[in-house]
Write a structure and sequence with these properties.
74% helix, mainly alpha, single chain, disordered N terminus, 251 residues, 0% strand
């Protein structure tokens, strides 16, 4: 009697939300916080912008402290807070404060793009927990997919480059939009300055969604290769793995 293969574990929706949480915080909290603090609480535009922007940074800072590790994102948050404090003493122009995120968005863009050239792409590294789901065999397959599969490496770099280019474009357009309006029309310019980032993030997430299925399939191919070589066990969602090497993954 054939024993049915165990079904693959369903993805954890909470894990997906945690991955998107920084984007949600960066987009929603600054906008909502500014209008609440400025329109309802009566704070000046500069202080409303500063406090609303700091709210998103606090979440990332707490997360960094919990992990006891200052990674690139944590470093950007520290730089953001330092720049925020400095701007409070340099200028009372709310446009300068509103354009401030362009500084660390630009740094993030440059870092993302640099990982496409040096080392491994940031998206590949950041996606490891979700792509492997803590399965040791899947972790080996994911690692070996980078070593063995040229299409896998190319797509991982493409996704990372898409995030980097989106951040780069957003950093430039934010400054252009904010300074295209006079100070007395700042509320309108601040709201409009968020739109490029929102559109770009949606576009990149859609692009990434189409890539995930292909990337998953490439890792499956490598997993089957490793199983045939006796390195790992079979995929939980796989049927019978045909004898002989697979040819879908090449260096």
């Amino acid at each position: 009697m054939n024993t049915p293969a165990p079904t693959a574990a369903k993805p954890d929706p909470g894990q997906k939300f945690r991955a998107l949480a920084p984007m949600i915080l960066d987009l929603v909290i600054p906008i909502a916080g500014f209008y609440v603090l400025h329109q309802l609480a009566g704070l000046s535009q500069v202080w409303a912008l500063t406090l609303a922007g700091a709210a998103g940074g606090v979440w990332t800072l707490i997360h960094t402290i919990q992990r006891r590790k200052l990674d690139v994102i944590g470093l950007l948050v520290v730089l953001e807070m330092a720049l925020t404090v400095a701007l409070l003493f340099i200028s009372n122009d709310p446009r300068l404060v509103a354009a401030k995120p362009s500084f660390y968005t630009l740094l993030a863009a440059l870092y993302l793009l640099s990982t496409c050239v040096f080392g491994r792409p940031l998206v590949y590294v950041a996606a490891t927990p979700m792509a492997t789901d803590g399965d040791p065999d899947r972790t080996v397959a994911y690692e070996q997919a980078w070593e063995r599969s040229k299409p896998f490496r190319a797509r991982e770099r493409a996704v990372t480059a898409a995030f980097g280019l989106a951040a780069l474009i957003d950093s430039v357009l934010r400054v252009i939009v904010v300074y295209s309006y006079d100070v007395d029309k700042f509320n309108e310019s601040f709201l409009l300055s968020q739109l490029p980032g929102l559109v770009l993030i949606v576009a990149v997430l859609l692009f990434t969604k189409f890539q995930i299925k292909v990337l998953h399939g490439l890792v499956d191919e490598v997993h089957d290769q490793l199983h045939h070589e006796g390195v790992v066990g079979p995929r939980p969602d796989a049927g019978t793995v045909p004898a002989g090497p697979r040819h879908g993954a090449t260096r």
